[in-house]
Amino acid sequence: MSLPNKRGARMRRSTAAGQIKELILTQRLKPGDALPTEAELCETLDVSRSSVREAIRTLSTLDIVDVRHGHGTFVGDMSLDPLVETLVFRGALSSDGSLEALREVVEVRLALDFALAELVVEGARRHHVEELHVLVDEMNAKAARGEYFLEADRTFHTLLYSATDNQLAEQLVGAFWDVHTAVAPHLGSASPSEMRETAQCHADMLAAVLRGDVEAYRKSVVEHYRPIQRMLEAAPR
Amino acid sequence: MSLPNKRGARMRRSTAAGQIKELILTQRLKPGDALPTEAELCETLDVSRSSVREAIRTLSTLDIVDVRHGHGTFVGDMSLDPLVETLVFRGALSSDGSLEALREVVEVRLALDFALAELVVEGARRHHVEELHVLVDEMNAKAARGEYFLEADRTFHTLLYSATDNQLAEQLVGAFWDVHTAVAPHLGSASPSEMRETAQCHADMLAAVLRGDVEAYRKSVVEHYRPIQRMLEAAPR
User: Fold this and answer.
1) Contacts from A79-82 at CB under 8 Å and sequence distance 24+?
2) Where do the H-state alpha helices sit in B116-225?
3) What is the distance between the alpha carbons of residues B234 and A114, in angstroms, rounded to a whole number?
4) How many Å apart are CA A9 and CA B127, to the nearest integer?
5) What pLDDT digit, counting tens, does each position of B67-93 carry?
6) How far apart are the first and last CA of chain B?
């Protein structure tokens, strides 16, 4: 219940940041658009140079603006990078090691994959079949050689969500992937058979997408988290 | 795919922030613990005063540290406040007004509520029945008088998740509530009958929790989003 007050306090402390956000809104700027220079902002907002600098730094940390040194300041992507940074650090900090944080991330990822299955299957089927095939082939080939395939795995899941018409879900899945990737090394490595199992689960997910079979997709998604869930259970608490 | 590089660049730019995070980890500090003073940090990390200040500001924006003016700097709560701030602003900025952002938030909330129903019912049943009853009574009473009950509504959902043993899910639901609350005013107001309907859905959710009936809980959760989904559909694009 304390969130709104705390955030309120933060906004009052950094009114220059609030003013810059207001300016972005009223001038209808979009991600990538240039902001006025520091000097212009001082003038327009009637605040000191150091206030503007502090505000820009705050907004840059939140990815609301993007400072490109030597080029100026632009409206940012408003990605979930700040969320990732906080979650990864919270994971590293948690008293029982980072595995508790990874368990929570896996649980939330599973929840999203399960509940949004219909949107994912529908969208992926129409837009990304070719690319998903290429990725599954890559995962199978790498698993057969005993090589990791994190990058292909991530691209596979990102693609699945990119056609859902829900940017928030897509970005959350990406953010959780980043947390997952950062924390997973503490888990120990997957065995060759687990790697092949995981690659096969992706093939099953794709097959379900091709058939437009939402229930089969849900089943293969659940299966696909089994190896990591087993590793989490086996890890020392 | 561009996230890791961008974040990498950000971390390289702010190595003092990285060093402070490292210090929190190695000294096993917990949220609420005091950090060394600015002067001590300069000394320990061998960086300039302005670098320390900039780093503290960055970490404060991410809620990794908490600056209490006149009292010092402490390890922060690592809440999802920064996520909320970015999402609310992104919502306000989106080209088709903020309603698209609210639709996405409702979809993700529904996904979490649906997929985590088992954990929620199990936990709430054991720990929060009394408080949930009080909140449902409050919602019913207010709806009958035509008054809003956002605060009770939020507390209801937060309580449901607080016993799930998944802090991330709990915080995400809280964060989405904040976004929801910030963006909802653009939607127009609920009718008295919609308010009574929403209050009744919470009563149904509680009844399902009491019976330990996960399927009935899922059904009433889905119902409970109907009024807002109708309002989103009716709103001009």
Assistant:
1) A79/A171, A79/B3, A79/B6, A80/A171, A80/A172, A80/A174, A80/A175, A80/B83, A80/B86, A81/A175, A81/B3, A81/B6, A81/B7, A81/B10, A82/B61, A82/B62, A82/B82, A82/B83, A82/B86
2) 117-127, 129-144, 150-162, 167-183, 192-211, 214-224
3) 28
4) 32
5) 998 899 999 988 888 888 888 788 777
6) 31
Asked whether the beta carbons of A158 and A176 are under 8 A apart, the reply is no
The full set of domains in chain A, from first to last, is 3-75 (1.10.10.10), 81-234 (1.20.120.530)
CB contact under 8 A, A169 and B107: yes
Give DSSP secondary structure letters for A101-114: HHHHHHHHHHHHHH
| Cβ atoms within 10 Å, residue B189 | 11
The reply to whether ipTM tops 0.95 is no
Question: What's the Rg (C-alpha) of chain B?
Answer: 22
Report the C-alpha gap between A11 and B192 in whole angstroms. Answer: 33
Joined tokens for residue A196: 């092949």
Burial (CB count <10 Å: 0-12, 13-18, 19+), residue B5:
exposed
Question: How far away is chain B from the Cα of A207, in angstroms, using its nearest Cα?
Answer: 23
Tens of pLDDT, residues B184-212: 776 767 788 888 999 999 999 999 999 99
Question: What value, to the nearest 5°, has the Cα angle with vertex B99 and ends B94 and B105?
Answer: 95
* Residues A76/A24, Cβ–Cβ less than 8 Å: no
Q: B116, A112: Cβ pair inside 8 Å?
A: no
Which residue carries 């976004």 as its tokens? B179
Sign of CA dihedral B134, B135, B136, B142: positive
Is B108's CB within 8 Å of A78's CB? Answer: no
Residues making up chain A, counted from first to last: 237
Which parts of chain B sit beneath pLDDT 70?
Answer: 1-14, 94-98, 186, 188, 236-237
Give B194's contacts (C-beta < 8 A, 6+ positions apart).
B227, B231
Per-residue pLDDT tens over the stretch A7-35: 444 444 448 999 999 899 888 888 899 99
Contact A205, A228 (CB under 8 A): no
Which residues in chain B are contacts of A78 at CB distance < 8 A?
A: 86, 89-90, 93
User: Helix, strand or coil for residue B72?
Assistant: strand
Chain A: give the shortest CA distance to residue B112, in Å: 6
